[in-house]
Amino acid sequence: MTHAPENDPAGSATERDALLGAVHEAAEQVRHRTPLVQCLTNEVTVNLVANVLLAAGASPAMVATPGEAEELAHVADAVLVNLGTMGADHRVSIRSTVAAAQGARTPWVLDPVAVGVLSLRTRLAAEILVHTPAVVRGNASEIRALAGLSSAGRGVDARDDVDDALTAAVAVAGRTGAVVAVSGATDLVTDGVTVVRITGGDPLLTLVTGGGCALGGLVAATSAVASPLVAAVTASAWFNEAATDAALVARGPGSFAAAFVDAVYALTADRLVERAAAGLHVGALTAAGPRA
Q1: CB-based contacts of 93: which residues, under 8 Å, 6+ apart?
Q2: DSSP-assigned beta bridge partners for residue 108
Q3: Cα–Cα distance, 80 to 108 (Å, whole number)
Q4: Cα-Cα end-to-end distance for the chain
Q5: Are strands 59-61 and 78-82 parallel, antiparallel or unpaired?
Q6: Among residues 219, 241, 214, which one has the least CA distance to residue 231?
């Protein structure tokens, strides 16, 4: 069945205002509560993920050792599971950690890096989805692959448009109960009923290794203090606005990476909501097309 999002009519203004209020509260709470975020993430990007979390006000714990990872999942405020590193120990830790997180009711976020392109991680992603992630965050090709649809992904790069992943995102949300966040030129977040689109960002993000991984970490941090839908929208808006600010002073990808961490740190909740308001659109899904 094909679903279609409605436009963002005047009738949804109240929903958008309520969502913006929740985004403001989530950003404030990350800095007030300093959530402990356990990260099982790509070893290539661990530094950027940790620095972005620290800049946002969270406390990163890059613990992925079998025997320790599952212990931390019981006390962490949220967990990021990123499939960028697929060594044997990492796979063991992922399986035990998501089971522990589910048992402890710790929200966890799945970043299905290169799923659909490489078979080992594709099978692992399908296996761990039964442990009820709070949010699944990926690019359009990865989300299509999770839903069992063909995709044009190449490694970690998406070759599908965000709009091409809407049906897939709804299917994954319905099957897992997770909110699904699709990153792209315009980000898309859905719980299978509501669709939120967030514009912004800068192309320089695509030239920095670990941008998507760091976004997954920020989604985990916001998941510790807000509902999954609000968490994913807050993280996306925070990321996009920080990237816009960083691009204003960057001379290229290297200086952009440092400026981006500074921008995440500098962006207040008030400023985040003020700037994100124009680019945030809330709609609903219907089976037959746009709702009147």
Answers
A1: 40, 64, 65, 66, 69, 70
A2: 79
A3: 6
A4: 19
A5: unpaired
A6: 219
Tokens of 227: 């509902």
Q: Is the pLDDT of residue 286 over 80?
A: no
* Angle value at C-alpha 10, between 8 and 13, nearest 5 degrees: 80
Task: Give the pLDDT of residue 2.
Answer: 47
SS (H, E, C) the chain: CCCEECCCCHHHHHHHHHHHHHHHHHHHHHHHHCCEEEEECCCCCHHHHHHHHHHHCCEEECCCCCCCHHHHHCCCCEEEEECCCCCHHHHHHHHHHHHHHHHHCCCEEEECCCECCEHHHHHHHHHHHHHCCCEEEEEHHHHHHHCCCCCCCECCECCCCHHHHHHHHHHHHHHHCCEEEEECCCEEEECCCEEEEECCCCHHHHHCCCHHHHHHHHHHHHHCCCCHHHHHHHHHHHHHHHHHHHHHHCCCHHHHHHHHHHHHHHCCHHHHHHHHHHHEEEEEEECCCCCC
Structure token digits, residue 74: 């019981």
How many other CB atoms are there within 10 angstroms of residue 177's CB atom?
14
pLDDT in tens, 76-107: 999 999 999 889 999 999 999 999 999 999 99
- Contact present, 179 and 136 (Cβ < 8 Å): yes
Greatest C-alpha distance within the chain: 54
* Sole residue written with tokens 């816009």: 244
Q: Are strands 280-286 and 194-198 parallel, antiparallel or unpaired?
A: antiparallel
Cα 146 off chain centre by: 15
